[in-house]
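Pipeline run #58 for the internal structure catalog. This entry was flagged by the ingest filter as a single-chain record with no existing model, so it goes straight to prediction. Upstream metadata was stripped on purpose; only the residue string is passed forward. Reviewer on rotation: M.T. Logging verbosity set to normal.
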Amino acid sequence: MLELIIHWLKGIPKEYVVMIVGALPIAELRGAIPLGLSLGMPLAKAFWLSALGNIIPVAPALFLLDPVSNRLRRFKIWARFFDWLFERTKKKSDSIQKYEALGLAIFVAIPLPMTGAWSGVVAASLFKIKFRYAFIAIVAGVIGAGLIVSILCTLGIMGWKAAIH
């Protein structure tokens, strides 16, 4: 899927591609940082472009998720989708319910499937976390996830180089 998206983005400057991939709910910054590195970017540049791409949709998503989901729930297929999405997020978000904004930041920072900024937006909506707290927590979580992914990429690159030599 990611390869198909990257194919569609051919001809676009690599900086924009990294930001766009960072904004996608499928890859987020967990896919964008390694992509930036594979495109020859320095780690710091890949990190900040990925983080920026991941953060840009957060504010609009926080404002729009409730009204859009409420409106779309009138249609059976969308009602099933949002029920599935909210239920799946709720199962993975015990720390958010217990610690609210701090739990939200930790939830977003863990670089695993079904965590990240997009799931953080859904969780913030589910647990009715105020916008200002949710936004700050999600941004902190994105930065934390970016640091973890950057460290893992660096260790992977160092291990790969050591294995070659």
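catalog note: The CA atoms of residues 2 and 26 lie 8 Å apart.
catalog note: The chain has ten helices and no strands.
status: ready for reviewer M.T.
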